[in-house]
Amino acid sequence: FLAAVKEGPGTKLAFRLRGKKYDCKMDDEFNLQSVSSDTSLTAPLVFAGYGITADSLQYDDYAGLDVKEKIVLVLRSTPEGSKNDSRFAKHAPLMVKVFTAREHGAAGRILITGPIDAESPKLISFEYPQSANSGIAVMSMRWDVLDSLVFGKKNSTATLQQTLNNTKKPSSFIVDDAEAEMQTQVVKEYGTSSNILGVIEGN
Fold it and tell me: Can you point out the beta strands (E) in 9-154?
């Protein structure tokens, strides 16, 4: 049986921006998600808003955006927050967003809990459904690190998220002159157990 799931020592995240490389610190600036597949890739970065495709709501963060074989940056939650009665509620779960990214051809996904949804920058807990494998690389990252490395002050995560929430309209884009390097390793530890259900005593 599956006893534990852990981040492997081979897990790494780095950014190449304007000719310079920055290596992120695991479990401080980023972490792996247990639903990630094991892979190694280098690909361009795309900001895909909340990562939602909802035809019935006429809302699609991926509309007109080519994310095939790219790494998408996606905000947690929805343009209406995390309310259970939101019309976006069924599109908010982590696995829904991961599978949506995969269906659009993304090679990897980095999830960010935006400043509107958290008082201070934080990572998403590593463990999700332990047996799940999304088929793509999946990590989470602190929004302040993303701002300092990728977005800057002009297009800060707070500004982007506030615009999405106010307009309820997608505002996705390819990040200029930026690539991410993702190496993912999920270590699964298995245990054994006895199948004895009981003992019937003889005479």
Answer: 12-17, 20-23, 30-32, 39-47, 53-54, 59-60, 71-75, 108-112, 137-141
